[in-house]
Every structure is written in structure tokens, then in C-alpha cells.
Amino acid sequence: MARKVAPLSDAQCRAAKPLNKEYKLFDGNGLYLLVKVNGSRIWRYKYTKPDGREGLTSFGHYPGITLAMARKQRDEARLLLLQGRDPIQQKLVTRRDAENARRTFEAVALNWHREMSRKWTPQYSGDVLVRLRDYLFPVLGHRAIAELDTSDLLVPVEMAKKRGTYTVARRLQQYMQCIMRDAKRARLIDSNPALDLVGAVKPQKVTHRPALSPQELPELLARIDAYRGNEITRIAVLLKLHMFVRSSELRFARWHEIDFDRALWEIPDTRKAIPGVRFSTRGTKMVGDIHLVPLSPQVLALLKRLKAISGRQTLLFPGEREASRPMSENTINKALRIMGYDTRTELCGHGFRTMACSALVESGLWSPEAIERQMSHRERNSVRAAYIHKAEFIEQRRLIMDWWSNYLDANRGGQVSPYDFARRQGGRSCG
User: Fold this and answer.
1) Is a pLDDT exceeding 80 seen at residue 430?
2) How do residues 356-375 score in pLDDT, each as one tens digit?
3) Is the dihedral of CA 7, 10, 11, 17 positive or negative?
4) What is the pLDDT of residue 348?
5) Segment (H or E) for 356
6) Exposed, middle or buried: residue 355 (CB in 10 Å: 0-12, 13-18, 19+)?
7) What are phi and psi of 138, to 5 degrees?
8) 23-56: pLDDT as tens digits
9) Fewer CB in 10 Å around end: N or C, the chain?
10) How does DSSP assign 215-284, residue by residue?
């Protein structure tokens, strides 16, 4: 039977002085004040753990922790023991929960982004950060990561789906799976609730961008010639048709990228940002590479006309209101609508790429590798890519771009098929 101990008083605690060796002042039920040689006084609690082993924990220093406060902690510890819980383990759990409560989703996400950015290009890193800030942080950023469950993570995904941005929704799902995985590895959470988001974004039916058939080329060229809008816009439409580059590649083009002497446009993978213009760092999608666009005589003539208009600016296509900003992303499609095309069902700017690619393949003149390279498509087969990624096929691509511009000119006098035009020129296959 445990020996009864007279409870301590505040006066006894205050009067406790250091001796030549440490000693204990007992308050009862396992609580005592340890007086050390250096004069510090520490509250200790000795107890028996639920598994029968001896346990010892500290409540802090006196007088910061008063006698009443120490007794309160002892009573709370005894209550835990009655419930079969170890006070030391509970203290660790409480401390971890408090730390986790301070670890918000935004803090963990930014740490994940910082680590991953070492592997990403600056452009891709910027794109990911924009999506985090636009879609995830407003909804989840302030929340403690430990309290988030699958239903919480589903909210921004559903919001993106309602906006019709299914690609963004799918990317958000991927980001959250990675962020929560990092949190689990750091022991901030016990399980990854983002894993249950699988299937939340169903694959969407691919909708191909509208494009014209070869039979409709003469009418398109006639409508472009008849266009009476802004001359820079008309040249932009013609250049996009002749060079079939992506919209961002053309829209953010800088004059220093154009080499008139070599008849070559070098599109970098990343460009210098334009203040206040989203995604202005975008270059070619071929990350870590420069996309080369040989310039046909027709394109060179168009560029010289354009240079007389915008050559004093940095951008080939400065905006109408601010020359330091590029033309609107809707400029080319708006011009096509003015020409009478429905850009949702008949023809859009991106459709020029489809038209050019189809004609080049149908001609039978060019190797698939050269066409794909000029389209700036990445080789999907990683093994094959390792062998051909250095091959530029540049001389064949010069022939390709000249042939395409000549083919467009040939259709001004009436429709001619790519195959017939290739035979008419006496071209031979390069496949």
C-alpha cells in the first residue's frame, strides 16, 4: 500500500533551496518537485504505464508552472491512465497534432512545388504554381493538411469540371495526390485521402479542332485577301497558315528570334516574361529544345512587310492598345469569324496545323520524322526518341516549308490536291 504523503504548500515550494545534491519534495499521487544542485526546480510525475512498466514525465519548471498547474496536469495524466492511455504517448500525439495544425495545405504544397521545380523547366514550374494559386489555395490553402479528407479535396476538382476545364481538373487531381503523398511521407497524415480521387475526372471525348479540306483552300485564301481589318492581323493569319505554328509560339514571337539572313525562326522553349501577361514565357512545347522554323520566300516577304509596321517593337504582333503587350489570343479566330467562318465548327487558327500536316502526309514526299519534327511533336516512344532527338532533318524541312507555301499559292488559281501538286512538281519521295 502506497505511503500517504502530506500535500505540498506554495510556501514549501518557494522555500526549496539547492543543496549539495538534488532532492525531491513529494505532493502525493506520483507528483513531486525535483530540486537540483544548480537551483532549478522541476515538476516530475512518476506513474505505472498501462502495460505495467514504470513511467516518468516532466510538467515543467517551477515557478513558471505553479503547484496548482502541476496538480492539474497530474490529474489529467491520471485520467488518461484510467482510460488505458500513456500520458507520455498522449503528449507526443498532442504535440504532433498541434504541429500538424500549423502545417497548412498551402505550406506543404509550396514545399512540394519548390522541390519539384528542381526537375521542371521554369515555364512548367510557373504554370503549376499558377494553377495551385488559382484553383487549390483559395479553397484548401488555409486548412490544416491533417484535417483534409477526400470530400475536401474533391471540391476544387468539381469546381474546375463545372467550368468545363477538364484538363485542369485532371492536373489538380494529380497535384493533390503528390502533395498528400509528401505529407504522408513526412508523417503529417496517416493516409493519403487523394488516392480516392481516382475516377473523379472521367476521360473526355477528344474534340478535334475544326479545319478545312484541301477543296476549300481557294475560298480561304480569297477571304484572307479580301479581309479589310488590321493589316497586322491579316499578316498574322497568313503567317500562321504558312508556318502552322502553335498560337502561343506566334503570339509571343520576338523580332530577335527571326534570322532573315539564314531564313530561319528559332523558337526557344522559354521566353522572357512580359509583365502582366499570363503564360508569356511560353515558347515551343519541346521542353529543353529550340524549335526551328525554316522561312519560305513567301514567309520572308510577309515578315518584311510586318517589320515595316512593328519592327521598332520587341514583339512581332504588338497589341493595338499597348505595344508592349502581345495581340489578344482571340485575334486570329476573331478575324476568321469576320471572314465568315464558324470557329467552333468550320475553321479555327489551330486548324491550320491539321490542314498542313494532312497535306504534307498526302503528298507522299516527306518522311514522317521530318513532318513530326516540323510540327514540333515529341516522339512518344522513349527508346526511339533517344536515337532521333538530335536529328533536325533541317534540309528536308526547308523543302517542306517551301513546298507548303508553293502549294498554298497554287490553290489561288483553283483547287489542286496535295498528291497532284507533288506529281506536277515532279517531286520524289523522301520517305
Assistant:
1) no
2) 999 999 999 999 889 999 99
3) positive
4) 93
5) helix 351-363
6) buried
7) -60, -30
8) 999 999 899 999 999 999 999 999 998 888 999 9
9) N
10) GGHHHHHHHHHH--S-HHHHHHHHHHHHH---HHHHHT-BGGGEETTTTEEEE-SB-PPPTT-TTTTB--
Mind listing the pLDDT tens digit for each residue in 52-92?
Answer: 899 998 999 999 999 999 999 999 999 988 888 888 888 87
Say how far apart CA 340 and CA 335 lie, in whole Å: 9
Cell 491579316, residue? 234
The yes-or-no verdict on residue 204 having pLDDT over 90 is no
**pLDDT band for position 3 (cuts 50, 70, 90):** low
Q: What are phi and psi of 408, to 5 degrees?
A: -60, -45
Check if the beta carbon of residue 238 is closer than 8 Å to that of residue 375: no
- Report the alpha-carbon distance of residue 165 to residue 160 in Å, rounded: 5
Please give the angle made by the CA atoms of 152, 158 and 162, to the nearest 5 degrees: 155
257-306 pLDDT, tens per residue? Answer: 999 999 999 999 888 989 888 888 888 876 567 899 999 999 999 999 99
Per-position b or e across 195-218, b if 16+ CB within 10 A of its CB: eebeebbeeeeeeeebbbebebbb
Helices 67-82 and 87-102 cross at an angle (nearest 10°) of: 100
Q: Quick one: how far is CA 350 from the chain centroid? A: 23
Asked if 110 and 182 touch (Cβ cutoff 8 Å), the reply is: no
Structural domains of the chain in order of their starting residue, each with its CATH number: 10-88 (3.30.160.390), 105-197 (1.10.150.130), 214-424 (1.10.443.10)
Residues involved in catalysis: 246, 285, 350, 353, 377, 387
CA–CA separation, 23 and 221 (whole Å): 100
389 pLDDT more than 50: no
231: nearest Cα among 296, 309, 299: 309
Burial category of 308 from C-beta neighbours within 10 Å (exposed 0-12, middle 13-18, buried 19 and up): exposed
Task: Note whether 18 and 35 are within 8 A (CB).
Answer: yes
- Is residue 351 within 8 A of residue 212, CB to CB? The reply is yes
Residue-averaged pLDDT of the chain: 87
Beta pairing partners, 57? 45
Tell me the per-residue pLDDT of 127-169, one tens digit each, with 9 for 90 and over.
Answer: 899 999 999 999 999 998 988 999 999 999 998 888 878 888 8
Instruction: Determine the pLDDT at residue 286.
Output: 63
Please, what is the end-to-end C-alpha distance for the chain in angstroms?
A: 98
